[in-house]
Amino acid sequence: MHPAFSVVFFTTATGAGYGLLALLGVLGGLGFIPADFWLGLAGMALALGLTVAGLLSSTGHLGRPERAWRAFSQWRSSWLSREGVASVATFIPATLFGVGWVFLGKSGGWVAVAGLLAAAGAVTTVCTTAMIYASLKPIAQWHSRYTLPAYLIFAAMTGSVLANALLQSFSAGSSAILELALLATLAGWVWKLATWRYNDQLEIPTTANTATGLAGGTVRSIEWPHTEENYLLKEMGFRIARKHSAKLRWITQALAFVVPIVLLILAFMAPWPLAAMASVLAAVSQFAGMLVERWLFFAEAKHTVTLYYGRA
Length: 312
What we know:
CATH superfamily: Formate dehydrogenase/DMSO reductase domain
Shape: globular
CATH class: Mainly Alpha
Number of helices: 10
Strand content: under 5%
CATH topology: Formate dehydrogenase/DMSO reductase fold
Radius of gyration: 21 Å
Largest sheet: none
CATH architecture: Up-down Bundle
Distance between the termini: 14 Å
Order of helices and strands: HHHHHHHHHH
């Protein structure tokens, strides 16, 4: 699949934003994170800023962005539409929670309810985003048991690393959040390695023979149905060299997992403000690494429509 940067940024930014929002909604609403004005303002601005930036970026991949609103009407059958509805609905309790926690300095009561609803909406939105890809049967690398958990794990991972950086920056670091960020990053690394292993061993049953129903011999295309590359080949027939794929996988592991783990361990041992600096660098490195990971997520996916054009 063609890895358009707008969609790459969208899936990375919204995952991190909704992950952070869920943590703030639960921990802030229940009083585990103090209702400090500047900390809360920075946290909510970062969480909602990432989600809004990601959602707006996604419209850049549409042929007619001004018609994006029409996607909301297809929620009965479209995961894309459900994602749009869930993302907008999540802003209602998130706004109420932000007003109560940030501007009124309250936790518990209705603020906790709003925070929990915002967290539930964030998780639901991440799930609908994942299902946009997991529901696509023609793309075997996405239509697997690894896709939905990956989105949830990566949202928890990037969200917790951002939450740790936020708390450390305001000298309100929590060992529990730091441990959560470290464990989530380890879990994300393990899950990514398992996903790559699954995709590398994947045997796609659909071939030109099965598509045409001709069992004997090997069916091949004599000539292309088009004289030049068309929309389908541009969007769904993207090819990446194996050596480039391997190099980008190493870069992903280094930036998204190895460097953040080392920096988070350093934050455990270092005093403030070194712990804060290490935590912020961990968040920046991980976000950059996840951009590369998302690019590979699209670039390595193969759509069966390419069989029509003679590609194996």
